[in-house]
Amino acid sequence: MSFSPAGTTAGPDRRDEDALRDRVARELDRTRRRTRHLTDAVDDEDLRRQHSPLMSPLVWDLAHVGSQEELWLVRDVGGRDPLRPDIDDLYDAFRHGRADRPALPLLSPTEARRYVASVRTKALDVLADVPLEGRRLVTGAFAFGMIVQHEQQHDETMLATHQLRRGGPVLTAPPVPAPAGPPGPSEVLVPAGTFTMGTSVETWALDNERPAHPVHVPAFHIDTKAVTNARFAEFIDDGGYDRPELWSGEGWALRTGSDLRAPLFWRRDTDGRWWRRVFGRWEPVVPEEPVVHVSFHEAEAFATWCGRRLPTEAEWEKAARFDPRSGETRRYPWGDEAPTERHANLGQRHLRPAPAGAFPTGTSPLGVHQLLGDVWEWTSTTFRGYPGFAAFPYREYSEVFFGEEYRVLRGGSFGTDHTVARATFRNWDYPRRRQIFAGFRCARDARREEVG
Questions:
Q1: pTM (predicted TM-score)
Q2: Listed residue (209, 219, 181, 262) closest to 410, CA to CA
Q3: Which CATH number fits domain 187-228+297-450: 3.40.50.720, 3.40.605.10, 3.20.20.70, 3.90.1580.10?
Protein backbone atom coordinates (compact mmCIF):
# COMPACT_ATOMS: atom_id res chain seq x y z
CA MET A 1 0.00 0.00 0.00
CA SER A 2 1.16 3.55 -0.66
CA PHE A 3 0.05 6.62 1.21
CA SER A 4 1.13 9.18 -1.40
CA PRO A 5 -1.88 10.97 -2.92
CA ALA A 6 -2.40 9.94 -6.52
CA GLY A 7 -0.89 12.28 -9.09
CA THR A 8 1.40 14.14 -6.67
CA THR A 9 5.14 14.26 -6.57
CA ALA A 10 6.63 14.10 -3.11
CA GLY A 11 9.73 16.03 -2.15
CA PRO A 12 12.61 14.41 -0.29
CA ASP A 13 10.98 14.77 3.15
CA ARG A 14 7.63 13.57 1.86
CA ARG A 15 9.25 10.59 0.16
CA ASP A 16 10.93 9.62 3.43
CA GLU A 17 7.66 9.91 5.31
CA ASP A 18 5.80 7.90 2.68
CA ALA A 19 8.47 5.20 2.87
CA LEU A 20 8.05 5.11 6.64
CA ARG A 21 4.27 4.81 6.32
CA ASP A 22 4.68 1.97 3.84
CA ARG A 23 7.10 0.22 6.17
CA VAL A 24 4.72 0.56 9.11
CA ALA A 25 1.81 -0.77 7.04
CA ARG A 26 3.86 -3.79 5.97
CA GLU A 27 4.92 -4.50 9.55
CA LEU A 28 1.37 -4.23 10.83
CA ASP A 29 0.16 -6.59 8.12
CA ARG A 30 2.98 -9.09 8.61
CA THR A 31 2.39 -9.14 12.34
CA ARG A 32 -1.35 -9.61 11.98
CA ARG A 33 -0.79 -12.53 9.60
CA ARG A 34 1.25 -14.21 12.34
CA THR A 35 -1.51 -13.56 14.88
CA ARG A 36 -4.08 -15.07 12.54
CA HIS A 37 -1.88 -18.10 11.94
CA LEU A 38 -1.60 -18.76 15.67
CA THR A 39 -5.31 -18.30 16.37
CA ASP A 40 -6.69 -19.94 13.22
CA ALA A 41 -4.63 -23.07 13.93
CA VAL A 42 -7.15 -24.24 16.56
CA ASP A 43 -10.94 -24.35 16.82
CA ASP A 44 -13.08 -21.93 18.80
CA GLU A 45 -13.29 -24.20 21.82
CA ASP A 46 -9.50 -24.36 21.98
CA LEU A 47 -9.29 -20.58 21.65
CA ARG A 48 -11.49 -20.19 24.72
CA ARG A 49 -9.67 -22.83 26.79
CA GLN A 50 -7.04 -21.93 29.36
CA HIS A 51 -4.18 -24.35 28.78
CA SER A 52 -2.28 -23.25 31.89
CA PRO A 53 -3.07 -20.84 34.75
CA LEU A 54 0.17 -19.09 33.73
CA MET A 55 -1.31 -18.17 30.35
CA SER A 56 -4.41 -16.43 29.04
CA PRO A 57 -6.87 -18.13 26.71
CA LEU A 58 -5.74 -17.42 23.17
CA VAL A 59 -8.94 -15.50 22.49
CA TRP A 60 -8.04 -13.04 25.28
CA ASP A 61 -4.64 -12.33 23.67
CA LEU A 62 -6.34 -11.85 20.31
CA ALA A 63 -8.78 -9.20 21.55
CA HIS A 64 -6.14 -7.64 23.83
CA VAL A 65 -3.84 -6.75 20.93
CA GLY A 66 -6.80 -5.10 19.24
CA SER A 67 -7.69 -3.22 22.42
CA GLN A 68 -4.16 -1.84 22.78
CA GLU A 69 -4.12 -0.85 19.11
CA GLU A 70 -7.40 0.98 19.56
CA LEU A 71 -6.26 2.78 22.72
CA TRP A 72 -2.95 3.98 21.33
CA LEU A 73 -3.39 4.36 17.57
CA VAL A 74 -7.08 5.03 17.06
CA ARG A 75 -7.87 7.07 20.17
CA ASP A 76 -4.57 8.64 21.26
CA VAL A 77 -2.62 9.16 18.05
CA GLY A 78 -5.65 9.54 15.77
CA GLY A 79 -8.05 11.27 18.14
CA ARG A 80 -10.87 9.11 16.77
CA ASP A 81 -14.00 8.02 18.61
CA PRO A 82 -13.72 4.76 20.60
CA LEU A 83 -14.93 1.58 18.93
CA ARG A 84 -15.53 -0.53 22.04
CA PRO A 85 -15.01 1.45 25.26
CA ASP A 86 -17.16 -1.14 27.02
CA ILE A 87 -14.38 -3.75 26.81
CA ASP A 88 -11.47 -1.62 28.00
CA ASP A 89 -11.60 -3.17 31.46
CA LEU A 90 -11.80 -6.76 30.19
CA TYR A 91 -8.54 -6.46 28.28
CA ASP A 92 -6.58 -4.41 30.79
CA ALA A 93 -3.74 -6.75 31.77
CA PHE A 94 -3.25 -4.98 35.10
CA ARG A 95 -6.87 -5.39 36.21
CA HIS A 96 -7.19 -9.12 35.67
CA GLY A 97 -4.51 -11.74 36.27
CA ARG A 98 -4.08 -14.50 33.72
CA ALA A 99 -5.59 -17.16 35.97
CA ASP A 100 -8.81 -15.10 36.27
CA ARG A 101 -9.34 -14.22 32.62
CA PRO A 102 -11.34 -17.32 31.52
CA ALA A 103 -14.14 -16.30 33.92
CA LEU A 104 -14.54 -12.87 32.31
CA PRO A 105 -17.30 -12.16 29.75
CA LEU A 106 -14.78 -12.16 26.92
CA LEU A 107 -15.57 -11.58 23.28
CA SER A 108 -16.24 -14.77 21.39
CA PRO A 109 -13.69 -15.81 18.76
CA THR A 110 -15.96 -14.45 16.02
CA GLU A 111 -16.47 -11.17 17.86
CA ALA A 112 -12.77 -10.85 18.63
CA ARG A 113 -11.78 -11.36 14.99
CA ARG A 114 -14.36 -8.82 13.87
CA TYR A 115 -13.16 -6.34 16.49
CA VAL A 116 -9.45 -6.52 15.67
CA ALA A 117 -10.25 -6.19 11.95
CA SER A 118 -12.30 -3.05 12.59
CA VAL A 119 -9.55 -1.57 14.74
CA ARG A 120 -6.97 -2.26 12.05
CA THR A 121 -9.04 -0.46 9.42
CA LYS A 122 -9.23 2.60 11.67
CA ALA A 123 -5.52 2.39 12.54
CA LEU A 124 -4.56 2.38 8.87
CA ASP A 125 -6.73 5.44 8.32
CA VAL A 126 -4.81 7.15 11.12
CA LEU A 127 -1.50 6.08 9.62
CA ALA A 128 -2.48 7.63 6.29
CA ASP A 129 -3.41 10.97 7.86
CA VAL A 130 -1.38 11.73 10.96
CA PRO A 131 1.88 13.71 10.63
CA LEU A 132 4.79 11.55 11.79
CA GLU A 133 6.45 14.44 13.56
CA GLY A 134 5.74 17.09 16.16
CA ARG A 135 5.01 14.74 19.06
CA ARG A 136 7.37 12.22 20.56
CA LEU A 137 4.65 9.58 20.39
CA VAL A 138 4.45 9.82 16.60
CA THR A 139 7.96 10.92 15.60
CA GLY A 140 9.51 8.11 13.59
CA ALA A 141 6.13 6.32 13.87
CA PHE A 142 7.05 5.32 17.43
CA ALA A 143 3.49 4.52 18.54
CA PHE A 144 2.97 2.31 15.49
CA GLY A 145 6.27 0.54 16.15
CA MET A 146 5.27 0.08 19.79
CA ILE A 147 2.03 -1.60 18.72
CA VAL A 148 3.83 -3.84 16.22
CA GLN A 149 6.21 -4.95 18.95
CA HIS A 150 3.39 -5.37 21.47
CA GLU A 151 1.49 -7.67 19.13
CA GLN A 152 4.64 -9.61 18.26
CA GLN A 153 5.35 -10.09 21.97
CA HIS A 154 1.84 -11.46 22.42
CA ASP A 155 2.39 -13.69 19.40
CA GLU A 156 5.37 -15.20 21.20
CA THR A 157 3.21 -15.57 24.31
CA MET A 158 0.58 -17.34 22.21
CA LEU A 159 3.28 -19.57 20.78
CA ALA A 160 4.22 -20.52 24.34
CA THR A 161 0.54 -21.30 24.95
CA HIS A 162 0.60 -23.61 21.94
CA GLN A 163 3.54 -25.42 23.53
CA LEU A 164 1.50 -25.86 26.73
CA ARG A 165 -1.71 -27.00 25.06
CA ARG A 166 -2.70 -30.65 25.07
CA GLY A 167 -3.75 -32.39 21.90
CA GLY A 168 -2.28 -33.13 18.54
CA PRO A 169 0.15 -30.86 16.70
CA VAL A 170 -1.29 -27.94 14.76
CA LEU A 171 1.86 -25.94 13.95
CA THR A 172 4.54 -26.96 11.46
CA ALA A 173 7.85 -25.49 10.36
CA PRO A 174 10.96 -26.62 8.44
CA PRO A 175 13.92 -28.07 10.35
CA VAL A 176 16.66 -25.83 11.65
CA PRO A 177 19.83 -25.54 9.57
CA ALA A 178 22.78 -27.75 10.44
CA PRO A 179 25.97 -26.21 11.83
CA ALA A 180 28.13 -24.75 9.08
CA GLY A 181 31.37 -26.21 10.42
CA PRO A 182 33.14 -27.78 13.38
CA PRO A 183 32.70 -26.08 16.76
CA GLY A 184 35.28 -23.48 17.72
CA PRO A 185 36.54 -22.72 21.21
CA SER A 186 34.06 -23.25 24.04
CA GLU A 187 34.62 -19.76 25.48
CA VAL A 188 36.18 -16.42 24.58
CA LEU A 189 37.78 -13.65 26.58
CA VAL A 190 35.95 -10.32 26.48
CA PRO A 191 38.56 -7.66 27.28
CA ALA A 192 38.09 -5.14 30.07
CA GLY A 193 36.94 -1.69 29.11
CA THR A 194 34.02 0.63 28.56
CA PHE A 195 31.29 0.21 25.99
CA THR A 196 28.02 1.99 25.26
CA MET A 197 25.09 0.13 26.80
CA GLY A 198 21.51 0.80 25.72
CA THR A 199 20.47 3.21 23.01
CA SER A 200 19.36 6.78 22.47
CA VAL A 201 19.04 6.54 18.68
CA GLU A 202 16.92 3.47 17.86
CA THR A 203 13.57 4.98 16.90
CA TRP A 204 11.44 2.06 18.08
CA ALA A 205 13.49 1.20 21.17
CA LEU A 206 11.38 1.10 24.32
CA ASP A 207 11.88 3.12 27.46
CA ASN A 208 13.84 0.54 29.46
CA GLU A 209 16.49 0.37 26.70
CA ARG A 210 17.18 4.08 27.11
CA PRO A 211 19.30 6.12 27.45
CA ALA A 212 22.64 5.03 26.02
CA HIS A 213 25.29 5.23 28.73
CA PRO A 214 28.92 4.16 29.19
CA VAL A 215 29.55 1.05 31.28
CA HIS A 216 32.95 -0.28 32.34
CA VAL A 217 33.08 -4.07 32.38
CA PRO A 218 36.05 -5.99 33.82
CA ALA A 219 37.52 -8.73 31.64
CA PHE A 220 35.51 -11.95 31.63
CA HIS A 221 35.04 -15.16 29.70
CA ILE A 222 31.73 -16.08 28.11
CA ASP A 223 30.59 -19.30 26.44
CA THR A 224 30.58 -19.18 22.67
CA LYS A 225 27.30 -21.11 22.64
CA ALA A 226 24.27 -21.61 24.82
CA VAL A 227 24.28 -24.62 27.14
CA THR A 228 23.10 -27.67 25.21
CA ASN A 229 20.66 -30.44 26.06
CA ALA A 230 23.54 -32.90 26.25
CA ARG A 231 25.44 -30.78 28.73
CA PHE A 232 22.35 -30.19 30.84
CA ALA A 233 21.65 -33.93 30.88
CA GLU A 234 25.13 -34.40 32.40
CA PHE A 235 24.10 -32.05 35.18
CA ILE A 236 20.98 -34.15 35.80
CA ASP A 237 22.91 -37.43 35.74
CA ASP A 238 25.40 -36.03 38.24
CA GLY A 239 22.60 -35.44 40.71
CA GLY A 240 22.26 -31.74 39.98
CA TYR A 241 18.62 -31.66 41.07
CA ASP A 242 19.43 -33.46 44.33
CA ARG A 243 22.33 -31.36 45.61
CA PRO A 244 21.15 -28.37 47.62
CA GLU A 245 24.67 -26.92 47.74
CA LEU A 246 24.32 -26.06 44.04
CA TRP A 247 21.15 -24.05 44.53
CA SER A 248 20.29 -20.74 46.14
CA GLY A 249 17.81 -20.86 49.01
CA GLU A 250 15.03 -19.57 46.77
CA GLY A 251 16.02 -21.96 44.02
CA TRP A 252 16.06 -25.00 46.31
CA ALA A 253 12.62 -24.06 47.65
CA LEU A 254 11.33 -24.03 44.06
CA ARG A 255 13.12 -27.29 43.24
CA THR A 256 11.63 -29.14 46.22
CA GLY A 257 8.24 -27.42 46.29
CA SER A 258 7.59 -28.10 42.61
CA ASP A 259 9.53 -31.39 42.48
CA LEU A 260 11.68 -30.25 39.58
CA ARG A 261 13.72 -33.08 38.06
CA ALA A 262 14.44 -31.90 34.51
CA PRO A 263 13.56 -29.06 32.14
CA LEU A 264 9.87 -28.54 31.52
CA PHE A 265 8.42 -30.93 28.91
CA TRP A 266 11.19 -33.53 29.39
CA ARG A 267 10.56 -37.13 30.41
CA ARG A 268 12.78 -40.21 30.62
CA ASP A 269 11.81 -43.59 29.21
CA THR A 270 12.58 -46.98 30.74
CA ASP A 271 15.78 -47.21 28.69
CA GLY A 272 17.09 -43.98 30.18
CA ARG A 273 16.59 -41.88 27.06
CA TRP A 274 15.27 -38.34 27.38
CA TRP A 275 12.25 -37.26 25.36
CA ARG A 276 10.73 -33.81 24.94
CA ARG A 277 7.24 -32.66 23.96
CA VAL A 278 7.47 -30.06 21.18
CA PHE A 279 4.19 -28.46 20.09
CA GLY A 280 2.18 -31.65 20.49
CA ARG A 281 4.85 -34.12 19.36
CA TRP A 282 7.06 -36.31 21.55
CA GLU A 283 10.58 -36.65 20.19
CA PRO A 284 14.01 -37.63 21.49
CA VAL A 285 15.88 -34.73 23.04
CA VAL A 286 18.38 -33.45 20.47
CA PRO A 287 21.78 -33.39 22.24
CA GLU A 288 23.34 -30.46 20.38
CA GLU A 289 20.39 -28.06 20.60
CA PRO A 290 20.34 -25.38 23.33
CA VAL A 291 18.40 -26.43 26.40
CA VAL A 292 15.10 -24.57 26.67
CA HIS A 293 12.31 -24.24 29.25
CA VAL A 294 14.57 -23.91 32.28
CA SER A 295 14.13 -21.39 35.07
CA PHE A 296 16.72 -18.90 36.25
CA HIS A 297 17.24 -21.10 39.31
CA GLU A 298 18.01 -24.18 37.21
CA ALA A 299 20.40 -22.15 35.08
CA GLU A 300 22.12 -20.78 38.17
CA ALA A 301 22.45 -24.26 39.73
CA PHE A 302 23.97 -25.61 36.51
CA ALA A 303 26.48 -22.75 36.39
CA THR A 304 27.50 -23.45 39.99
CA TRP A 305 27.83 -27.15 39.19
CA CYS A 306 30.34 -26.48 36.41
CA GLY A 307 32.29 -23.86 38.37
CA ARG A 308 30.96 -20.89 36.43
CA ARG A 309 28.21 -18.31 36.75
CA LEU A 310 25.56 -16.56 34.70
CA PRO A 311 26.68 -13.39 32.92
CA THR A 312 25.49 -10.02 34.09
CA GLU A 313 23.27 -8.10 31.74
CA ALA A 314 26.10 -5.67 30.96
CA GLU A 315 28.47 -8.56 30.19
CA TRP A 316 25.91 -10.12 27.87
CA GLU A 317 25.33 -6.88 25.98
CA LYS A 318 29.04 -6.14 25.69
CA ALA A 319 29.67 -9.64 24.29
CA ALA A 320 26.84 -9.05 21.81
CA ARG A 321 27.67 -5.52 20.68
CA PHE A 322 31.30 -4.58 21.32
CA ASP A 323 33.87 -4.92 18.55
CA PRO A 324 37.35 -4.97 20.17
CA ARG A 325 39.09 -4.35 16.85
CA SER A 326 37.34 -1.06 16.13
CA GLY A 327 36.38 -0.18 19.71
CA GLU A 328 32.84 0.51 18.48
CA THR A 329 29.53 -0.64 19.90
CA ARG A 330 27.45 -2.27 17.16
CA ARG A 331 23.69 -2.47 16.73
CA TYR A 332 23.84 -6.28 16.45
CA PRO A 333 26.54 -8.92 16.97
CA TRP A 334 27.26 -9.04 13.22
CA GLY A 335 27.17 -5.28 12.60
CA ASP A 336 24.50 -2.68 11.87
CA GLU A 337 22.40 -4.62 9.32
CA ALA A 338 18.94 -5.55 10.60
CA PRO A 339 18.41 -9.29 11.25
CA THR A 340 17.61 -11.57 8.33
CA GLU A 341 17.13 -15.32 8.17
CA ARG A 342 20.88 -15.60 7.54
CA HIS A 343 21.73 -13.99 10.87
CA ALA A 344 19.53 -15.60 13.49
CA ASN A 345 16.78 -18.08 14.29
CA LEU A 346 13.86 -15.71 14.82
CA GLY A 347 10.22 -15.22 13.97
CA GLN A 348 8.84 -18.73 14.48
CA ARG A 349 10.51 -19.95 11.31
CA HIS A 350 11.73 -23.22 12.82
CA LEU A 351 9.76 -23.81 16.05
CA ARG A 352 12.90 -24.89 17.91
CA PRO A 353 16.38 -23.63 18.81
CA ALA A 354 19.23 -24.41 16.45
CA PRO A 355 22.64 -25.91 17.28
CA ALA A 356 25.58 -23.54 17.64
CA GLY A 357 27.15 -22.76 14.28
CA ALA A 358 23.87 -22.91 12.36
CA PHE A 359 23.97 -19.15 11.69
CA PRO A 360 27.65 -18.27 11.13
CA THR A 361 26.72 -14.92 9.58
CA GLY A 362 25.36 -13.86 12.97
CA THR A 363 28.55 -14.55 14.92
CA SER A 364 30.03 -11.70 16.97
CA PRO A 365 33.54 -10.32 16.30
CA LEU A 366 34.83 -12.34 19.25
CA GLY A 367 33.36 -15.56 17.88
CA VAL A 368 30.27 -15.87 20.08
CA HIS A 369 27.46 -17.74 18.33
CA GLN A 370 23.74 -16.97 18.20
CA LEU A 371 23.43 -14.30 20.83
CA LEU A 372 20.16 -13.33 19.15
CA GLY A 373 17.43 -15.90 18.56
CA ASP A 374 17.11 -19.56 19.57
CA VAL A 375 16.56 -19.08 23.32
CA TRP A 376 16.14 -16.15 25.67
CA GLU A 377 19.20 -16.14 27.90
CA TRP A 378 18.95 -15.65 31.64
CA THR A 379 21.33 -13.11 33.18
CA SER A 380 22.12 -12.59 36.84
CA THR A 381 20.83 -9.00 36.79
CA THR A 382 17.62 -7.80 38.41
CA PHE A 383 15.40 -5.57 36.29
CA ARG A 384 15.94 -1.85 36.88
CA GLY A 385 16.04 1.35 34.88
CA TYR A 386 19.26 2.71 33.43
CA PRO A 387 20.76 5.96 34.76
CA GLY A 388 18.55 8.72 33.43
CA PHE A 389 15.60 6.41 32.78
CA ALA A 390 12.30 8.13 32.02
CA ALA A 391 9.06 6.19 31.64
CA PHE A 392 7.49 6.60 28.19
CA PRO A 393 4.76 6.53 27.11
CA TYR A 394 3.36 4.92 30.30
CA ARG A 395 4.80 3.61 33.57
CA GLU A 396 3.15 0.22 33.22
CA TYR A 397 5.36 -0.86 30.33
CA SER A 398 8.55 -1.10 32.41
CA GLU A 399 8.78 0.96 35.57
CA VAL A 400 6.22 -0.91 37.66
CA PHE A 401 8.28 -4.08 37.22
CA PHE A 402 11.60 -2.66 38.46
CA GLY A 403 12.95 -4.42 41.53
CA GLU A 404 14.35 -7.62 42.98
CA GLU A 405 11.47 -9.84 41.85
CA TYR A 406 12.51 -10.09 38.20
CA ARG A 407 15.61 -11.23 36.34
CA VAL A 408 16.60 -9.86 32.95
CA LEU A 409 16.67 -12.13 29.90
CA ARG A 410 18.45 -11.16 26.70
CA GLY A 411 18.70 -12.10 23.06
CA GLY A 412 15.29 -13.36 22.00
CA SER A 413 14.16 -16.87 21.10
CA PHE A 414 13.14 -18.75 17.98
CA GLY A 415 9.67 -17.30 18.65
CA THR A 416 10.82 -13.66 18.88
CA ASP A 417 10.23 -11.38 15.92
CA HIS A 418 13.06 -9.39 14.38
CA THR A 419 11.33 -6.10 15.26
CA VAL A 420 11.86 -7.02 18.93
CA ALA A 421 15.23 -8.78 18.66
CA ARG A 422 17.50 -5.80 19.16
CA ALA A 423 20.78 -6.32 20.96
CA THR A 424 19.55 -3.66 23.39
CA PHE A 425 16.11 -5.21 23.99
CA ARG A 426 15.44 -6.22 27.59
CA ASN A 427 13.03 -8.96 28.60
CA TRP A 428 12.27 -9.83 32.20
CA ASP A 429 10.41 -12.48 34.14
CA TYR A 430 10.12 -14.16 37.49
CA PRO A 431 13.16 -16.38 38.08
CA ARG A 432 10.90 -19.42 38.59
CA ARG A 433 9.32 -19.22 35.14
CA ARG A 434 9.86 -22.22 32.83
CA GLN A 435 7.11 -21.98 30.20
CA ILE A 436 8.98 -19.23 28.33
CA PHE A 437 11.50 -20.14 25.63
CA ALA A 438 14.47 -19.55 27.94
CA GLY A 439 17.93 -21.09 28.14
CA PHE A 440 21.30 -19.65 29.09
CA ARG A 441 25.04 -19.53 28.57
CA CYS A 442 27.70 -19.31 31.27
CA ALA A 443 30.50 -16.89 32.07
CA ARG A 444 33.44 -16.66 34.45
CA ASP A 445 35.76 -14.01 35.78
CA ALA A 446 39.06 -13.66 33.96
CA ARG A 447 42.17 -14.43 35.97
CA ARG A 448 44.96 -11.86 36.10
CA GLU A 449 47.33 -13.99 34.06
CA GLU A 450 44.68 -14.38 31.32
CA VAL A 451 44.36 -10.66 30.74
CA GLY A 452 48.07 -9.81 30.96
A1: 0.95
A2: 209
A3: 3.90.1580.10
